[in-house]
Amino acid sequence: MSEAVQEHHEYDVLIIGAGGAGLRAAIEAKQRGLKVGIITKSLLGKAHTVMAEGGMAAAMGNVYPEDNWKVHFRDTMRGGKYLNNYRMAELHAKEAPDRVYELEQWGALFDRTKDGKILQRDFGGHRYARLAHVGDRTGLELIRTLQQKVVSMGTDVFMECKVLKLLHDAEGRIAGCVGYWRATGEFVTFQAKTVILATGGAGKSWKFTSNSWEGTGDGHAMALWAGARLIDMEAVQFHPTGMVWPLSVRGLLVTEGVRGDGGVLRNSLGERFMFNYVADMFRAETADSEEEADKWYDDHSAGRRPPELLPRDEVARAINTEVKAGRGSPHGGVFLDIATRRTPEFIRRRLPSMYHQFMELAGVDITREAMEIGPTCHYIMGGVQVDADSQETIVPGLFAAGEVGGGMHGANRLGGNSLSDLIVFGRRAGIGAAEYIEAGSVATAFDQSEVDAAIADALAPFTRAEGENPYSVHHDLQEMMQADVGIIRNAGELEEARVKLLAFTERVKHISVKGGRAYNPGWNLATDLPAMITVSTCVTIGATLRKESRGGHTREDFPNPDPELGKINFAQSTDGGNWDSPVTVVESPILVMPAELKALLEEAK
Amino acid sequence: MGAVTLRVWRGDASGGDFESYTLEQNEGEVVLDVIHRIQATEAPDLACRWNCKAGKCGSCSAEINGKPRLMCMTRMDTLPEGPVTVTPMKTFPIIRDLVTDVSFNYVQAAKVPALMPPPMPVGGYRMFQEDVERGQEFRKCIECFMCQDVCHVIRDHEDNKAHYAGPRFFIRYAELEMHPLDQNDRRDLIREDMGLGYCNITKCCTEVCPEHIKITDNAIIPLKERVVDAHYDPVAWLGRKIRRKTKTSAVDAAVQPAP
Predict the structure, then answer these.
(1) In this complex, do B51 and A50 lie within 8 Å of one another by their Cβ atoms?
(2) Do B120 and B231 belong together in one domain?
């Protein structure tokens, strides 16, 4: 231990992140008798999972018995515009039901069907009502269930600990990490045979986002710095329905469940404009009149799906177009109306937290008036490239699960597929880590120079008497990413963004922090910024190279998909060194699907 | 809009004082927005917790004009004219500024014996909506710990923390006791070790709950009745003696295999 580090811990499996994926991984590893530690930047139970609303997708067939994993697989691949790692989509569709049932053994209480089974709700892009849910607070149910399970197993949880960097041994295997306690600012090292990244997303680099302060892409960046590859970083999801007013809550999520339960989108002329935005690939299964669409809610065989329930990328683009054409709402969004379509009792029972959120924060009673909504940066499909079955990266001993992982969702994620992703692949990462340890070749010591370098970087802002305020750098980064690498992109703005990101990198090196190290949010933000700049750079590079429009990535200069680009993921890596080392990109061919799975996609076209 | 003044308690375990910040007020802002603007300008080291900014995570609890509130759900325009006072939760030790050491709650959470369900039948458990709804009310809890903060049993008597779980955990125990699948018995534990008897149902906890959970009426009072029945009913007492139903420890209950 060096002088700067007064605390050290050792684990078989060290999990960074305590949302759904991290907690589920911990349960699995712990059940296998391993010594497991979990590190979280916040308090336990506050991770981003808690904010998930609508539900988790699993083809249990409780509402529509004709649903099964094959349909779920197909929906996921179509939603992802076929850029997905098919194997992940397959495993996810097959295993999600068992993972949901398992939660009930641990205490979860889902809403029920009349005959006592788990109730399932409709969501965008899912052919059948498929989302297990608890009103509109499903994420809270998921995280609390997993949290209570983890605690009952006696797992070590390190709260309010910010991890700065992953560590290697002399052979290049993962050997642990270094971080600091937010409460004291003291440094701590963890030695570990395996590290599972479960750090979630990166939305905090955009101005209008549903993400909390934690969504700074730490795991994406640390994986890259540690030698892993990031794929599909250009695939960022803008959720169609975020609050737009008051300004202070702009971006706050409004669940897709509003539309699943009958809510529709209207422009300032009162039109249900989504009928004008049905892409060819979805035309055959989408209603072409309001009358037909309205029949569908009660009986999916009576009509085709309402266009409001197209995948999120389609809906977000349509809203963007309506607003640009001058048909928006007073505060620059469109209207989401459930008040005229469902009774107040129904709305309050099905959407209690939406009711509460609009009432308290916007003074809008959603049982009486329409909501004003617009797209908000919500999720990153891109992430660490992993083996589908084990979630292992190309760095020995390093695993990634949940939002930080890449491939599962392709170019666009369907709503409801995230919570199920967490529990399916969290478990698989736990198994993967256990099997890696059993195989025997694990790190036993880390390279001290990596610790020293990370600490020196983290403390540098205190050594500068004069310099930039970290909040100003963050503010400007969010403005820039929103303007230049937002929902609609073009070559000129992306090139501008690349140049500006070089300047941001320099600005980060001139940040000065006031005060001490104990619970200092300014300093905490300063240590988050390298990851945010790194991830923003990767998104910009991916977006520049993908000269087509696909899923969450839309280029106005290349409005159509390009079949050739549909065969590759752009994989980014660095050769290590500093956090701002240049990124190199290779074209990584997508996995070739076996014929029987391919047939599932063909069948239902 | 006019200006607004926030008086924020700043300090640490060794002491502190109020500092005033005066800013322009923006339309629709909540207290947390103003705190964030203070951080971004005058006081980048002002410590506070927050995550979701939507009343879903329960991180940003503080006392606003002396009352426990979520900073993210308290609109500035709903507060009386004049300076707004923001202080940390009183019941928990100070870490820094508005951040307190809430580990007491995590210690209590670790003492809760886990759910013990019967083996799962093929196709999952059958439970009915009216049966799960009682537990669902308690599972709305976002763990803001404001009910713990306001509970005078521990707010005014630090030494009670050693033998009192507090309202947040009484709803947790109530949830488990009313859970349609649970086969565990925690009634002796609740009476003997969790200090349920200390609560004299003043309903302060119910009043501050941002999720509007009827903590006292729906959890604490029914729990008191169950515990009393179990303890003082001679038939139940005899039954316990004969059956020797023992408390399952949290760890034992946890090692059920996954399906």
Answers:
(1) yes
(2) yes
